[in-house]
Amino acid sequence: MKKYARLLLSLFCVVCLTACVDEEEFANTPQGNFEALWKIIDEHYCFFDYKQHEYGLDWQEVHAKYQAQVNSRMTNEQLFEVLGNMLGELRDGHVNLTAAHDMARYWQWYENYPANFSDSLQRRYLGTDYKIASGLYYKILDDNIGYIRYSTFTQGVGSGNLSEVLNEFILCRGIIIDIRSNGGGDLTNAEKLAARFTNERTLVGYMQHKTGTGHSDFSDMEPRYLDPAASLRWQKPVCVLTNRHVFSAANEFTMYMKALPNVKIVGDHTGGGAGMPFSSSLPNGWVVRFSAVPMYDAHRQTTEFGIAPDYEVSLRRDDFLRGEDTIIEYARKLLSQ
User: Fold this and answer.
1) For the segment 30-73, what is each residue's pLDDT rounded down to a tens digit?
2) For the residues of 218-284, what is the DSSP string, one character each?
3) What is the pTM of this model?
4) Contact indicator for 205, 224 with CB cutoff of 8 Å
């Protein structure tokens, strides 16, 4: 069972289509494609109850609203716009509609918020003498704090990579793991990294599976555990840096690390993305991706709309003008105490 769950979780990626659902046939007309899309989401999307509670989402009302905009004379571009707007009602970054000419998406989970990350500042801290271990850029800062930049979990990292990085930091007082603007990727990479910071099996969350077509048809919650790595593990304090662009597998990594005793989350609220995405096709060949398997934290709470940091810190303009990253400097002070 553990191996099967890990296989599923490794596919939890912000950019990949992960599974398919078979649907009954609809006519390849504007109305047929509309009904096919609405029904796919109605029967398989996993956050209806939560989003109805959070902001009053009513999928039946959504049907009435957008069906009135569909007619047999509309162009493909017009139909695509209507269907994309309908999916936007879900407010879910894992929901996309893809055609040959465009991809409808919901990115307001980070676009409507301050970036709280600067490439130019980040390059200043790394300098030119940093080391690279697969997807990890790392160096020791001048106050003897280890700094790791992991920009995407789509880039793999091996056990040997992680051991070399931790060996490099062995005399450091603490480690900063900067995952700001990490939009997700392969959850296996997130698990590998998090496993280096625990000495015991730790409950990090739960998951459910759809058992029927109703909005509330789910299995019982299944616990998810993080097992300690068999190789070198870190025993000193850690700060994980986050912003609103932390999503999907990076959001899950934040959830794992938040459950560990020597870890503090510093920065901004994450963007969320707590549903494992599946995919299906419309009669005209357009592909829809949607959240189908809900994930929860160790307190059985969804993180679909993100995770609050332990220390909420934003980039300050005066620090930026001095060439300082407010969030990194705050974490350095925490680790130096």
Assistant:
1) 999 999 999 999 999 999 999 999 999 999 999 999 999 999 99
2) BPPPEEEEEPPPSS----S-EEEEE-TT-BTHHHHHHHHHHTSTTEEEEES---B--EEEEEEE-TT
3) 0.91
4) yes
